[in-house]
Amino acid sequence: EPEVTQTPSHQVTQMGQEVILRCVPISNHLYFYWYRQILGQKVEFLVSFYNNEISEKSEIFDDQFSVERPDGSNFTLKIRSTKLEDSAMYFCASSEIASGQAFFGQGTRLTVV
Amino acid sequence: AQSVTQPDIHITVSEGASLELRCNYSYGATPYLFWYVQSPGQGLQLLLKYFSGDTLVQGIKGFEAEFKRSQSSFNLRKPSVHWSDAAEYFCAVATPGTNAGKSTFGDGTTLTVKP
What we know:
heterodimer; A: 113 residues; mainly beta; 4-stranded antiparallel β-sheet; globular; B: 115 residues
């Protein structure tokens, strides 16, 4: 069964450093999403992406965040200057059509020290 | 805007007992509804989903959920809980249409299973 793949599974970074989280969505999917889950809290929507541009973003997704689809298979989330409060599990998701269900990856746990 | 409420933060049941986890949503029409399960430190696993049609949906691992429009609820049930069901459970809602992949999650319910 096709699945969304995220790498790395766990990343530790120093405060102030840039970090890039990588995702390979399901191959025929056109809509891509990032979510965040701070430890012990609920999953929160960050951003949706379609046709090489952001279609919607939440208040969390400020100027420190950016997304990119650098090639035909990868979808990345960049945090420019990480803060301690960016420590969380980050989930990538993709869907085939706008009205379809999103499929989630296993997540990348980001720890900022 | 859509929202989801999971009234129970923590539920404890005995192994073999039945389970019901509550979920209420706020949305003007019929949304897409999902239940996910998450083990500690792990990703989200989809248990079941409701888009339309039969209001009783069957999922994996013996779970089912019933959509009740009149109560704006989508409660998750299992007739006999196993110790391996201990996990965090999230209800989520999405808006049918152009951005259905954007889900709003509830705060989650932690399930503990007593031997």
